[in-house]
Amino acid sequence: MKANVMDNLIKMVDLITELTTAHYSQEQLASFVDCPVYREAEEGRTVFLEDRPSCLREHCLCDSTFIVKTNKQGMLVAKGKPKRLEEALDCFIDAGEYLGFLYDYENLKVENHKLKKELKLMINETNEAVMVVNHEGKIQSASLPSCRIFQETESSMINKSICLWSEVLWEELEKVEYSGNIQVKIHDHDVHVIVQTVIEGGIKDRYVLYLQVKDRSQAPIHTNYSFSNIIGTSLAVERTKRLAERVAPSETTILLRGESGTGKEVFAQSIHSASRRSDQPFIAINCAAIPEALLESELFGYDSGAFTGANQKGKLGKFEVAKGGTIFLDEVGDMPLSLQAKLLRLLQERKFERVGGTMSIDVDVRIIAATHQDLDVLVQQGKFRQDLFFRLNVIQLVIPSLRDRIDDLPLLTESFLKEYSLRQGGRSKHFTEEAWLLLQQYDWPGNIRELKNVIAHATQIEVGDQLTVDSLPVALRKGYKNVVVTPTHASEKERLLELLDQYGRHTAAKKQIAYELNMSLPTLYRRLKKHGIK
Ligand SMILES: Nc1ncnc2c1ncn2[C@@H]1O[C@H](COP(=O)(O)OP(=O)(O)OP(=O)(O)O)[C@@H](O)[C@H]1O
């Protein structure tokens, strides 16, 4: 479907060139009334003429073969091979319909600038990476997805030579006669470029480029996770998954809470994959990992000339790169207050300005924010704006820690063992009983990320199929006591007792404990009963 529309767009560029060559006004048409060809065309049929009819000859502005399409408003006369134009007219309608507007070619006023404007609009609106490069290698128009591949704003690419980004691409473009395929590297991405040349007056006038990033794992749009591959069947994770699945299709802003390494990004990606935006970009940005001075331009982009002495070209910010898709603001609690104000305005007005820019840019992005910190506390401390907190906290999902879903340890371990053993080209390895006990006793402060790292480490250093205590990191081995217990049971019981000691045994304390464990109060009572805790 998309490929067809692209083909159509490419062909249309050709068509537009042809259409601009001749058009007859109402007055001129008045003098054609006696012409049989014109009358036939007036009935609404497209008439293809191998030769120029005598009735048109005297009014004719140029001398070549014609195709005539007419109605009350005027007559469209275009130059070119009849069969090709017939196809092109169909393409014109198809592409117009797909892009949400139908160009009424019955009423077509064939004025060069208008058609060029329409083409530009279509290029801007398309979700495909399309560019037009002129015969000197200068970029004439570029759709937003193509700007993403080049990691530039449209304004910083227009009228610049394509050589600035890839000399190879320009060398290869020059070799293309009519159409061709080029493989190039742009910012380390392997990009496949489909090229169509536009010939005017017998010479190559411009190139229409359709770009596809081949290695999608490197493309910003890529997500690895959907709900179906979130591993875990524990009550805590099932509950969170159900709630996330319910809110995914809506456009609601979501706040994910949970310790580091619990899978907040995994949930954010899954929500994106289950939303209407799934074929649009998913862009993640860690607000804590980027120096404060750079965060604003990373998020909102900057216009050329925004920084003196700096790179004079503009740059797209993550909100623009994510257009139509989802942005994942990880560690949002670390965002500086000055930027919190800008983010709040964006959430309220769905608009923002680039750094150094004056133009307001509309935002069409779903926001999923995440934090391992307690935003309530940050609000009380004056480190996080309360109004922003309310805006972000429309739906809150708490991702349980691995301790609180320790029942999932076997499933997770098995899956990571398979993954890493396969990666290393061998059979699936397994833990000895002793090592397995240690894994179950450990309290996993680094959560699933830590578990993954432990398994990657163990499978790498152990040559045999069995992963022993010795292949575990020191932090885990510290707790090794060589005792036989039923650990899942024991560790949950231990955790419950610990929390009861900490908070107390009255109902309010139990409510707090249930909240901490991401379970309902009745579930907590069931668990307490199961472990014989009074
Ligand atoms: N349910 C799951 N099934 C499979 N893998 C998971 C699951 N949850 C998390 N992981 C893996 O654990 C690692 C950490 O997950 P992720 O980055 O989503 O955590 P996070 O909570 O966003 O961490 P941080 O707060 O540090 O950014 C990733 O490698 C991810 O693939």
TrEMBL record:
CDD domains the UniProt entry points to: AAA
Name assigned to this protein: Transcriptional regulator with PAS, ATPase and Fis domain
Domain Sigma-54 factor interaction: 230-460
UniProt keywords, alphabetically: ATP-binding, Nucleotide-binding, Transcription, Transcription regulation
Cross-referenced SMART domains: AAA
Nucleus as UniProt keyword: no
The organism's place on the tree of life at top rank: Bacteria
PANTHER family on file: C4-DICARBOXYLATE TRANSPORT TRANSCRIPTIONAL REGULATORY PROTEIN DCTD, TRANSCRIPTIONAL REGULATORY PROTEIN
